[in-house]
Specification:
The complex is a heterodimer of chains A (348) and B (336). Chain A is mainly α and 348 residues long. Chain A has 17 helices and six strands. Among the domains of chain A are: 177-219, no CATH class; 220-255, no CATH class; 260-295, no CATH class. Chain A has helices spanning 2-11, 14-21, 27-32, 34-38, 40-49, 54-67, 70-83, 88-99, 101-141, 147-152, 203-216, 259-267, 274-292, 295-298, 303-309, 318-334, 339-346; strands at 178-180, 186-189, 192-198, 224-227, 241-244, 251-252. In chain A, helix 2 crosses helix 5 (40-49) and helix 2 (14-21) packs across helix 6 (54-67). The two termini of chain A are 95 Å apart. Chain B has 336 residues and is of the alpha/beta class. Helix content of chain B is 32%, strand content 17%. Chain B is built from twelve helices and twelve strands. Chain B has helices at 49-54, 82-95, 112-116, 126-131, 136-139, 168-178, 198-204, 218-233, 248-252, 259-266, 278-286, 298-312, and strands at residues 18-19, 38-39, 69-74, 100-104, 141-142, 149-153, 161-162, 187-191, 209-214, 238-246, 269-275, 318-324. In chain B, the strands form two sheets. An eight-stranded mixed sheet of chain B has the order 5-6-4-8-3-9-10-11, with helices on both faces. The radius of gyration of chain B is 21 Å and the shape is globular. The chains are: A mainly alpha (348), B alpha/beta (336). At the A-B interface, strand 2, strand 3, helix 11, strand 6 and helix 12 of A face helix 4, helix 5, strand 7, helix 6 and helix 7 of B.
Chain lengths: 348, 336
């Protein structure tokens, strides 16, 4: 339907433009088509209205003029003389369509004006946006190294940094997202309204459930954990023993420290943790023992022993290595024990 | 019940006070505070910044019970949201201003550090503390977002926990935390492993109260009932439940048990009802707990409400049943 109407709309300007622009309208048209000639005045009026669309009209004129030669028009006249009586009804239709023409032209004119205004608005909006973006960027770059700058550069994650922003509402029961209805029968949470129903559980029912459970589940908390194969100590209730398989993935009954020591470790508030201290002390003691026994001097790699470690095929480099060994020996004996010993001592 | 904690110096004019009209009803919607709540209005933009920061929290829950409140979060069945609940309730408590120590007692399969985004900062665990490799304060991982929240993992994933001490180790830990120099924490929340194995026994040993997490399905409910029985046998009487992953649309279609049905089966007081929310998975993967999300999500709000009730030792008096179609205005047809 719409396509038909648009076709008609497009075809409409042709006819009057041809007729209007050609000042030498053939008289036969006037004579043979009284209806068209009578509507000519209207067409003139139409033309007057559509004068501003000269660019359209001219284009049509040209095509019309080029197409119209006297000879052909006369031939057409002959044809039209014969057909006039037949196509009287279509002519009337055309007349009706032409009569509806001026409002369309007027509408087109209006649309032209509004398009221009809309264009200006869009251009202005783009301009404002561009200026705003420019201003924002300018203000952002003004403080390099700020947190926002770090977030923008990907150095910080904005949602994880520091103390997160507190939410704006005051309490979870009464805030813009949670609203209890006027008669307390509904609540609106996050834009959805929920109906509320009162809780019906009474103290008696709770007590009945507790009794039922106490009858159903007879249980004593295990106080001792034993692995399979261990014997139950004499003073322990067998119900309170928990058997842990030896290959349990996460739990083990074996522990390398005793209970008091573990408790002290938990309660310790200051100072070096127990194990670190113990390891340090052990190292210290070992070092002291080494010093006292004068073992340090003996630990030096002796040239004779060093030979054992030498590889046979490196014999050509012997003099150089000898020299190095001498240097090493002197250095080690004067300052510190050799590397192998110190490595050994670091192990607990 | 409620107390307002504000500084007297920032006390605004009496005209600033107004009472929110709350008509007396047969039941109270979520908690039982005094119904007219004295509230501060939001400070205007002209007020100084200091006042604004003080007034950020104009209503605080009142801490009930003795500190430290040692709460074990357990379920029996795995995958119902114990660790998620621990992370979100713990951080909600920290946001409310309470000092919190969360202990991940899941010996072999710890995940709490991942949920909190602290996995790279766990160097020492309780096993190292027991062995004397480090002190307790060195094993506590302080969250940078909320500095009154600390995480303590019980063991490294590949190490074995010596069970020789049983739950004694956790009791020592609680004692050691009580006598800390910077003060006793208000809450010690223990994330219990699934099952009723040695890890469960270790986790519940120091607890005074328990939060049972369950989902509205029969497998989870049976395990929850069993675990509740064990807890009661062990002497933990204060047991409340959180019903997790509730879908009101399925409840409406009678494809899922309602929260009231769950309560009828277990006979436990309700601490919270957490709706199913896709944001939970997203926040888990990000290592950023749900309650810190801005804008807040439905499940995050529910966790915060649960934390509030935990502080006040309160329980729900009404539950959300189904979603109602929102009343639309006259102009809603036009998109208004």
């Amino acid at each position: 339907m719409t396509s038909i109407w648009t076709i008609q709309f497009q075809s409409l300007p042709f006819q009057p433009s041809i007729l209007g622009s050609k000042h030498h309208i053939p008289s036969y048209v006037v004579e043979l088509r009284p209806e068209v000639s009578s509507s000519y005045g209207r067409l003139n009026w139409t033309r007057r209205l559509s004068l501003r669309q000269m660019f359209v009209l001219r284009a049509i004129d040209r095509s019309a003029n080029s197409g119209c030669e006297d000879q052909s028009s006369q031939d057409e006249t002959v044809k039209s003389e014969a057909e006039t009586t037949i196509i009287q009804d279509p002519v009337r239709k055309l007349q009706g369509m032409i009569s509806s023409f001026p409002p369309i032209v007027f509408g087109m004119r209006q649309r032209m004006g509004s398009h221009f205004a809309i264009g200006i608005c869009i251009a202005t909006a783009f301009l404002v946006m561009a200026v705003r973006v420019y201003m924002v960027r300018k203000s952002r770059y003004s403080r390099p190294g700020s947190v926002a700058d770090l977030v923008r550069r990907g150095q910080l994650r904005s949602d994880r940094r520091g103390i997160s922003r507190p939410l704006k509402y005051d309490d979870p029961f009464d805030n813009p997202l949670v609203k209890v209805g006027k008669n307390n029968s509904t609540v609106e949470m996050c834009g959805k309204v929920y109906r509320l129903a009162p809780v019906t559980l009474t103290e008696e029912e709770q007590a009945i459930h507790q009794k039922r459970r106490s009858r159903a589940y007879q249980w004593k908390r295990p106080t001792i954990f034993l692995k399979e194969g261990d014997s139950i100590p004499p003073d322990v209730d067998p119900d309170t023993v928990r058997w842990i398989p030896a290959n349990h993935p996460f739990a083990t009954t074996a522990s390398d420290i005793d209970e008091d020591l573990a408790q002290n470790n938990v309660y310790q508030k200051h100072g070096v943790p127990f194990r670190i201290q113990a390891e340090h002390d052990a190292l210290q003691r070992k070092l002291e023992a080494l010093h006292s026994d004068q073992k340090l001097n003996k630990l030096v790699i002796e040239p004779g022993n060093a030979k054992d470690f030498e590889r046979a095929f490196k014999s050509y480099s012997k003099p150089i290595e000898r020299g190095e060994e001498n240097f090493l020996n002197d250095h080690a004996s004067s300052s510190k024990p050799p590397l192998s010993e110190s490595e050994e001592m670091q192990k607990p | 019940m409620l107390s307002l904690r504000f500084l007297p110096t920032t006390n605004p004019n009496s005209s600033f006070f107004h009472t929110a009209p709350h008509p007396p009803t047969s039941f109270k919607p979520f908690h039982n505070p005094i119904s007219p709540k004295p509230r501060f209005p939001k400070p205007s933009s002209s007020s100084p910044l200091t006042v604004r920061s003080v007034l950020q929290w104009n209503r605080k829950p009142e801490l009930a019970g003795e500190t430290p409140r040692v709460v074990v979060i357990t379920s029996g069945k795995g995958g119902v949201g114990k660790t998620t609940t621990t992370a979100n309730v713990g951080l909600s408590l920290a946001r409310l201003g309470f000092s919190v120590v969360a202990i991940d007692a899941d010996v072999g399969l710890r995940n709490l550090d991942l949920l909190l985004g602290l996995e790279n900062r766990v160097n020492y665990t309780v096993v190292e503390v027991l062995n004397g490799d480090c002190r307790l304060d060195q094993a506590l991982v302080r969250d940078k977002r909320w500095s009154n929240f600390e995480l303590l993992c019980i063991s490294k994933p590949r190490s074995k926990l010596p069970m020789g001490f049983g739950g004694k180790a956790l009791v020592w830990l609680v004692d050691a935390l009580k006598s800390r120099e910077e003060g006793c924490p208000d809450f010690i929340i223990i994330d219990c492993p699934a099952g009723i194995d040695a890890g469960f026994i270790t986790a519940i040993t120091p607890a005074n109260e328990a939060v049972l997490v369950t989902t509205p399905d029969i497998t989870s409910l049976r395990d929850a009932d069993r675990v509740t029985g064990l807890l009661e046998c062990d002497g933990i009487r204060d047991i409340k439940m959180i019903v997790n992953r509730v879908r009101t649309d399925m409840i409406k279609g009678e494809d899922m048990m309602s929260v009231l049905d769950v309560q009828e089966m277990l006979g436990l007081a309700l601490l919270g009802v957490i709706p199913e929310d896709s944001e939970v998975i997203r926040s888990t993967n990000r290592g950023y707990p749900l309650v810190l999300n801005n804008p807040p999500t439905l499940a995050g709000l529910a966790f915060e409400q649960a934390a509030w009730r935990l502080v006040e030792q309160d329980s729900m008096k009404a539950v959300m049943v189904e979603e109602e179609p929102k009343k639309r205005g006259f102009f809603s047809f036009f998109g208004g």
